[in-house]
Structure formats: C-alpha cells, structure tokens
Amino acid sequence: MNFALPRAWTTAALAFAAAAGLADGARAQPAWSAPIEAGPDIVTEFSRYRQNAAVTDDGGLAALALLGHVPSGYDPERGVAVVKRDAVTGAERWRRVFPPSSTSIGNAFAIAALPGGDVAVTGQADYLTRLDGATGNTVWSKPMPLARYYARAMSVDSGGNLVTGANQVSDASSVTTYVAKRAGADGSLLWETQLTPGGQFSVNLFVFAASDDDVLVVSGHAPLLPAPVTPHYYAARLDSATGAVLWRTELDQAFFTGADPADVALTADGDLVFGGNRAGLQAWIGRIDGDTGTPQWLVNHAGLQAVTDLAVTSDGDVVAAGGETYASATTGWAVARFAAADGAATWFRQLPLNPTRGRGKVIGIAPDGTVLLTGSCAVKSLCIAGVSPLDGADRWWYEQNYPTAADDFFYLPEAVFDADGALIVSVALPSANVTGGVSTVTQQRLIGPWVDAVFKDGFEE
After folding, report:
1. Between the ranges 19-23, 108-112, 123-127, 434-438, where is the mean pLDDT highest?
2. Which long-range contacts (CB under 8 A, 24 or more apart) does 246-250 make?
3. For residue 315, with 0-12 CB atoms within 10 Å meaning exposed, 13-18 middle and 19 or more buried, which class applies?
4. pLDDT at residue 415 above 60?
5. Could you read off the pLDDT of 9-53 as tens digits, one per residue?
6. Higher pLDDT, 248 or 444
7. What are φ and ψ of residue 140, in 5° steps?
8. Which contiguous run of DSSP H or E holds residue 19?
C-alpha cells in the first residue's frame, strides 16, 4: 500500500497561500511518506494524553498504533503495534505486534525513547515493556495497574529511569492515579505513589520529569453524573527519590472552576502551564509555580474558543491553538500568544480554513520563534502552517491531500522533530470500513523552513 500521494492543492488553500504572499518556495516539501501496516486494519486516535511517537538517539522513529475493528464503543479486544523506522529515510527497521488482551483497552498506551535507541511502551496486556532498539526484542516487561480505556502517560528522567502514570477505575465511582518510577536498566520498582481524586470518568493524565527529577503530575476526572458536569482536577509534585507528595493543588477550587485542561506543558523554569475550555465556548490559559504549586495567573479568551494544544516559547510565553467547537463549528483554526508574566494576550489570529473541520493544533516552535500549526484545512486535506511569533502573520504553508480518505476530518495528528530538525507527522486517516475509528495511520517527514529546530512542545523531549 503506497501513501506517498501527489499533493493536490485545493482552491481554498491556494487562495489562502496567495493572499498571504506565499510562493511555491515557501511551501514545505515532504521527504518521505509511509503507512504503518501490521494487519488488515489499524485503528487509532492521536490525542494529547496519548504519546504516540518518539524519536530515538540512534536516528530512529518509534510509533504506536492500535489494531482491529472497533464495532461499538470502547472495545477491549484490540492489539497494539510498535513500529520503528529510520527517521531520515522512512525505512522500517522492525515491528512488534502485541495481541489483544481481554483485560486491557489498547488505546490507553504511551511510548518513550530511552538511551541507546531502546523504547518503552505501555498498552499491551497492562504491561510496561522495554524493547531493544536494534531488534525490537523484549528487554524486560513489568505489570502495570489496569487502566481500562483511560489515560496513561510516561516520562524519562535524567538517569534513564521511567516514570509512568495510569488512571485506574476500580468501580463506578472511584478513580485512582498510580505514579511509579522504575529503573530503566531492569524495570525494578523504585517507588509507587497512589493519588485518589475520586469521581467517575478520568479523561486526562500528564506526567513530567522535572529538571531535578522530581515528578509533576496533572490528573483528575469529569464525573458522568449528576448533570451539569463538574470536573475535578489537581496538580502534584512528587519527590524524585521516594515518590512522597511535596505539594498538591486542587485546581478546580484554587485555580479554575468547571473547566477541563486539554493540554499541559512544562516551562524551562519548571512551571506548569494549562490550557482548557469552559463549557466548550471559551478558552482559558493558566500557570502555576512548579516549586510550590501556587497559582500564578489565569486568563480567559473568548475568541480562541476550544484549546487543543499548547507550546512554550524560549522566553516563556504560551502559544495556544484551537478554534472549532461542537457548539459553533464555524471558527476555523485559531491561535493566540500569552505573556509569561501575566497571561496577557499579545496577539490572536483566526485562519479561515475548512471551518466545519477547522480545529488547529500547535505542534512546535522553531528557534526563530516560528509557530507550527496543523489540522484539517480542506476536504480530505491535512495542512501545516508556520506563522510569525510576533503577530501571527503567515510565513509558509504545506498541504497534503488524501483522496482515498472517507471523510474530510482527520484526528489531530501527533508530530515530533527528529535530530536533524525535520518534522515527522503521524496522521490517522478516516475509513468508511471502520466504525468508531480510522483504518490507516501514515507518517510523513517534512523538510521546510524549520530545519535545525531544537525546541518543541510535547512528551518526547
């Protein structure tokens, strides 16, 4: 199956590029494009609380995908595929396929790069597994708490140890977050801490290893009943050596009320920044002190509406992207920049791209400050745009059309920078043959004006 398709520029995209003064040379070009194939169907969603791809220090790219049909709702009978390819050429090095497990939901997975090219993965039969970077063989495998179809997260500290988080639902009204540190060499358990926010439905989980190897956690729940929904989220800092809770801040009480955090990022000085939505109509951005858990500031932005993703600039400002909401579905892409000191909005832009499918997502920031955005932009098209950090003005543009896709809606893609500064994007393509999911995941390596980028947002830093 060949997904290295010729680019087809839509009328809307051409008009946008022309209006922005973007010549052909300002349009990014793909270096390679390849599907992830490991069976008759691959079903996946790329969401911010799922870590889908990681660049390894041996020039590789490791990615996760789900296998099998999803005939109705959340189906536990799904396997997980791990594929490692050469980041520069796209050539596949190896793949591992883990069969379905009746005790786990396959989409609660995460992947992280370890020193020497090895990778660690979760999501198969409730195990944390280290795979050899050269062969894909299992180095060690350790059980994790049952996460059902809820979130998992993973980070690697400065010593190559793995910090994992898993949200477990023990009954209809209790959610427990397990945070554990394991030795990277053999998987031995160094410590485990349980955090219990309560509630019925846990949807977001973020775990970061701070510069001093303390662990920063954001977790919580959105209860199913009673209506209206009142989310409950918290942030905590855990001691690097023991896992003891150093501080815990109840975010919905001390920081924001009735709002969900869609994304969380760690700043260079160790603070946590949050982006979320109030009632799906108004975006909020906030910051808390990473050392003490003290809220610093919180701002709302009605024009931005739904936040999907955050990035942090080199000077600590926050860039947030979003746009389309289920309530209006008319805004197109939207992006704004907020000052590090007080959260004041320095600029805001709406990009009129395929407004009925127009959620944008921040995927990175280049050393020159260029903000990289991605999302659906036209019928059956994925677009990536670079805008100025000073005012959001357009700098360059890339569009890939997928004529075989069943719909014009693409799940928001994951993207990572490789060692050469090229951008590798993983895209989930809709299919008419799969209910409740998509049937093909394809990856592209793009070479454009962001080459030599060394800073990015996300979990694979």
Report:
1. 108-112
2. 246/214, 247/292, 247/293, 248/195, 248/293, 249/288, 249/293, 249/294, 249/295
3. exposed
4. yes
5. 344 444 444 444 444 444 555 667 666 654 444 444 443 345 678
6. 248
7. -160, 160
8. helix 11-19
